[in-house]
Amino acid sequence: MMHTLLESDLRFGVIYSDPATGTAEVGCVGEIVKHERLADDRFFLICKGQERFRVAKVVRTKPYLVAGVRWLEDRPSGEEDVEALASEVEAYMKDVIRLSNRLNGKPEKKEAQDLRRNLFPTPFSFFVGSTFEGAPREQQALLELEDTAARLKREKETLRNTLNYLTAASAVKDVFPSA
To answer: Which residues, by range, are in coiled-coil regions (predicted)?
Structure first.
């Protein structure tokens, strides 16, 4: 597969799969932005996620899965103020980062981080989902949502729960510093 990719446009589909839930129908395009061939003919890759797709038809399964896909775009969020939601999510992210750093003994940064980096709400919502490392099923659920407001609301709830957990852990650490 790598040899084919290196001879083409460096883009490939990524689909979540696990033994419990099987193979997802929604995935995203990954683009290789940097690669290094290792001595044993494996590769070290840095990839960037791009547009989403839904598998329409599996064309073949060997030597790797090839499928026809339908591209996905978010539907309009209706009356929702997605800018306000994105700002709330950013605020929760900043609090989660601040408390995580505190619990891990990292110095607190005084300057406010611009986590949105001028991103519109939709790409920002995908960035937020990409930070939920260690929670692949949640990342997949977020990827499958076709409404930016719904995705931001779910991320806000996840971040709020994480913040509650970190706040409790911080309080325990304050009371029992050696714990």
So the answer is: 135-169
**From the CB of residue 142, how many other CB atoms can be counted at a distance below 10 Å?**
21
CA nearest neighbour of 84 among 4, 148, 168, 31: 148
Distance CA 109, CA 97 (A): 10
- The amino acid sitting at 68 is G
Per-residue pLDDT of 41-96, as tens digits, reads: 899 999 998 999 999 999 998 888 899 999 999 988 888 899 999 999 999 999 99
- Specify whether the CB–CB gap between 49 and 130 falls below 8 A: yes
Q: Model pTM? A: 0.84
Residue 17 in contact with residue 24, Cβ under 8 Å? yes
pLDDT tens profile 116-161: 888 899 999 999 999 998 899 999 999 999 999 999 999 999 999 9
